[in-house]
Design a protein that fits this description.
Number of strands: 15
Strand order of the largest sheet: 4-5-8-7-6-9
Number of domains: 3
Largest sheet: 6 strands, antiparallel, barrel
Distance between the termini: 26 Å
Number of helices: 6
Length: 350
């Protein structure tokens, strides 16, 4: 609060100085006072602030050149670091069901071979009794039923894992891939992020950016999640983190930025260049050696360090990054002499 008060006071002092300098009184024998210079002008419908190089240096004015960049739509997603104990339980259960299916398959193969052997002996040489043939047949049929049941349970387990975790993670479990072991040994982390309701990209985002205390962590997409989060109701996705694991304990709530859709070309306006007036965001463009023109900017596409602009501002433009607040105050407060074009709120752009 103290810092903001000091900043406001500094701006006031600078603006007051700009509006009065150099309104020095002339000597008594040199005539009337020197007029305060006009600093806001309107020409052909364009309003601009005019500051000579000395004044620019006095207020510490700085500019930067806007450069061409590309941008994809970014949306904030919400989620958590998934506790994989349920996944590992599903993995162990599937392994047990798979082992049982393999066992019954082997038993079926053995009993079928035994039945064929005994049946052959009975038909050709009667070296075995009919009772032995019937017993072998009964064992074969029993093993056949057991194998069918085990296969059905295996298929059900496969479908259950897919319904809970999606096709990609289900494949890890079904094929016993190393990815499951890495999750179980804390070498990776599983994250689930959900977009707001109504946000469903045509192509899933390939990655997401997770802001952490040590910086931004990039996590890679695994697959869309098949289940809807009850409290969010939007489309969910599973992501894999391979670094920054100390900042990702199980159950931690996280937010992430997802980029998706077609890439657009434009420029990034630094956040240090943006000034606010009556709820709108503006920047000042240096349109000449001593001229500064105010331009509106959009704030619906935030990026690290600023905002992306697809139109309205061109690459190569010189945007004011230091001193813009002084320019805004001058344009807002200054009034041109009577009969001149500029004055008041400098063209009514607020």
């Amino acid at each position: 609060m103290i810092r903001q008060t000091r900043l406001a006071h500094l701006v006031f002092v600078l603006v007051a100085g700009l509006l009065t300098y150099p309104a020095a009184q002339a000597d008594d024998d040199e005539g009337p006072p020197i007029a305060t210079p006009q600093r806001v002008f309107t020409e052909q419908g364009v309003t601009y602030v005019k500051l000579d190089p000395d004044t620019q240096q006095a207020i510490g004015l700085r500019t930067t050149t806007l450069k061409t960049t590309t941008y994809q739509t970014r949306r904030t997603a919400y989620g958590e670091v998934v506790d994989v104990s349920d996944l590992l339980a599903d993995y162990q259960q599937f392994a047990s069901v798979r082992a049982r299916a393999a066992q019954t398959r082997a038993q079926l193969a053995a009993s079928r071979a035994e039945y064929r052997r005994v049946s052959g002996l009975y038909k050709h040489q009667r070296n075995v009794s009919e009772k032995e043939v019937q017993a072998a047949r009964a064992t074969w049929r029993s093993d056949q039923a057991s194998s069918q049941e085990a296969r059905a349970r295996l298929a059900a387990a496969r479908n259950t894992i897919g319904a809970r975790w999606g096709a990609s993670i289900a494949e890890w479990v079904i094929e016993d891939q190393p990815a499951v072991e890495k999750l179980s040994t804390n070498k990776t982390r599983l994250l689930k992020l959900t977009l707001p309701l109504g946000e469903t990209p045509t192509q899933p985002p390939a990655a997401a950016q997770i802001p952490l205390s040590g910086g931004t962590l990039v996590v890679s997409l695994i697959s869309p999640a098949p289940r809807v989060e009850p409290d969010l109701q939007g489309q969910s996705y599973f992501f894999l983190a391979t670094s920054g694991l100390d900042d990702l304990p199980y159950g931690r709530r996280v937010t992430g930025l997802m980029s998706y859709g077609p890439q657009r070309r434009g420029v990034i306006v630094p956040d240090t260049a943006v000034v606010w007036s009556r709820g709108s965001a503006w920047v000042y463009i240096k349109s000449g050696p001593a001229q500064f023109q105010r331009q509106p900017v959009r704030i619906d596409a935030p990026v690290p360090g600023g905002w992306f602009q697809a139109s309205g501002l061109s690459p190569g433009a010189h945007v004011v990054t230091r001193g813009a607040q002084v320019l805004l105050s001058v344009q807002t407060l200054a009034s041109a002499p009577k009969g001149q074009a500029a004055g008041g709120d400098a063209g009514g752009n607020d």
